[in-house]
Structures are given as structure tokens and as C-alpha cells.
């Protein structure tokens, strides 16, 4: 499956915000707050156009979930077809992907790691093996690890190391069984990011 393999540090410096949630990028931004490249500081000082602001918000959200443009556009189109606010629908769709739920619960240290766990067949949803990272979880779903010692020991280590991950109301994590239960869909104010989704809707509405 295609994926972004470039330097994430440059992406973080370009946007000036740690979109990946990894502490090492906070340290990077403290050391080098200007944009990447020789003209990084000059680019940052210029006032962006309305279109540039919309594009930046779209790219920030896309990169934070590790999606390619085609995958992201597909998610946006699906959010348009649902009832309710398109921007909110988009964020809920992205947040309830199986790989994102695994990452949020702390069973992996990065979003990419969570995706590998799913793609390599280490996860089960309602006791059924699922290897599609974009699989949409639903209220009542139970996500567990397959009975492989290496997988379970890795997950146990991540749960121990990732102290910043804490259960939210819409998810319940049972650390003893390494099982995640989806209680309900998340609300917009429970999705922690600095994205202005209205600008993304405007970007695709042109």
C-alpha cells in the first residue's frame, strides 16, 4: 500500500505545529521554528492567501492521519454524503478508522505503527481478523490483539511507555486484556487537533 515515506520533521516545520503528537517533534520545533529550506524563514513571514490557508489546513489534517490525497478525498466525499456538518463528519470518520483507534488507545506509539499492526493482521474486531487500516469502527465494537506473544508484549510495552495516552469517554481500554471497546462515536470537542475544518470544506467546495 502506498504511503508517505518522506521526512516528517520537514512537514512539522512547514506547518509550525506538531501534527503527529510525538514529543520529539515538539523538541524539533523548539530548536528550529522556521520552515524547511533556505527560504523557510522568508516564506513564514509572508501573509498567505485565503487559498493557501485552506490548502495548509487540508494538508495538516491529511498528514496527521498519514493519508495520501486520494484516500483523504474519498473520506471527504463520504463525509459530504452523511447528514450533519461535513467538517465534523470528516473528523469523526478519520478518528474512527481502526488504525487511529489503536493509536489513540496507546497500543502503538505512532499512527504508522498502528497501521502496520492492522495491515499485518495483528488486530481483531469483534473476534474477526481485520487487516484494513481504514476499517470504520462502530459503537459496541471490541478491538483486541491476536494471541501472538510478540504482538502482545509489544503492545504491553507501548501501553507502559505512552503515558500521554489516556482513555477518553468514547473509548474504554482494558489494559489487562489489551482490549479496546468503542462506547460511542466521538464528539467534535473530543477530537484533539488544531485544525479549522471549515477551511477544508471551503477548499473542496471550489
Describe the structure.
The model has no long low-confidence stretch (mean pLDDT 84). Helix content is 48%, strand content 8%. The chain has helices at 8-15, 23-31, 40-45, 50-64, 69-81, 86-95, 98-105, 111-119, 149-161, 197-204; strands at residues 123-125, 128-129, 142-145, 171-174, 179-182. 29% of the residues are buried. It is globular. The chain starts with 7 loop residues before the first helix and ends with a helix. Helix 5 crosses helix 6 (86-95) and helix 7 (98-105) crosses helix 8. With 206 residues, the protein is of the alpha+beta class.
Beta fraction: 5-15%
Into which percent range does the helicity of residues fall? 40-55%
Separation, N- and C-terminal Cα atoms: 30 Å
Low-confidence stretches: none
Kindly name the structural category: alpha+beta
| Major β-sheet annotation | 5 strands, antiparallel
Taken in chain order, the helices and strands follow as HHHHHHHHEEEHEEH
Query: What overall form do the CA principal axes indicate?
Result: globular
Chain-averaged pLDDT: 84
Query: How many strands in all?
Result: 5
Radius of gyration: 18 Å
Helix/strand layout:
Blueprint: H1 8-15, H2 23-31, H3 40-45, H4 50-64, H5 69-81, H6 86-95, H7 98-105, H8 111-119, E1 123-125, E2 128-129, E3 142-145, H9 149-161, E4 171-174, E5 179-182, H10 197-204
Antiparallel strand pairs: 1-2, 1-3, 3-5, 4-5
